Amino acid sequence: MSAPSTAPSRAPAPAEVRGPVARPASRLLHRWVWLRLVLLLSAPLAWMVLVYVVALTALLITALWSVNSLTSEIDRTWTLENFRTLVENEVYRNVTLRTVGVALAVTVIDVTIALPIAFYMAKVASPRMRRILVVAVLTPLWASYLVKVFAWRVVLSEGGLLEWSGIANPGYGLGAVVIAQSYIWLPYVILPIFAALDRVPDSLLEAAGDLGAPAGMVIRTIVLPLLVPGIVAGAIFSFSLTMGDYITVNIVGGTSQMLGNLVFLNAGAANNLPLAAAIAMIPIVVMIVLLTAIRRTGALENL
Description:
73% of the residues lie in helices and 1% in strands. The chain is mainly alpha-helical. It has a two-stranded antiparallel sheet. A hairpin with a 6-residue loop joins strand 1 (66-67) and strand 2 (74-75). The model is unreliable at 13-19 (pLDDT under 50).
């Protein structure tokens, strides 16, 4: 009588241990990486196209329309009359130059003030003081825009804080606009420069000092080149926000006008939406020219 077999039991067939079949969609996404990328970016890209591309296209199309002088109705026949008016009318040319000049002045003032503040925050202050200063810079952003502008109106008014303290009061006008907007947009300039300085290694500055380089040379040859991305980012914020602002001009600008005021007046009281759209294209064109010029310097690639 033969002995019972002691051979090990045979492993179950693959079909017996195989898990649930993967879903066809999962297998498809795993195989085609580009399809996963398209599905991942489709929602934000669609939103950007809708908000920016479609909106700018609609703005340009509206600028090509005109308003019937008799019925005040919009004539949707395409024409370049609005752009011709902007070029030929001296008022619009002066307002454009005034707006660009104020934006440049605000940007230069903000960058000049932001550089030493950001340098102290990033390289001199202790960690505790750095946190306090960051909160101090961010705190004005939590206050209402209108409250800050009206506060400057009180300060600059006749008999206000400046006159009471014996400081020359510029009164309402372009000087007041530059002062108010420099204060409002300053945090947007400090933070990018602070972030750029915070990435500069302390060892690099210490090595330059050990090699005998004076402080001025260290700042000029080492710190400033590394700060270019932060300065450019802050300048873009300050310049673009000033170009599009009109509330500050209405409150402290006196009789001065900027492009934002003309857009507001033509879209509202004058009921000339096509001309307002054409005026609104001016800051867009200026920013495109500015960004193109900055891009040629290579600063945008480092942002």
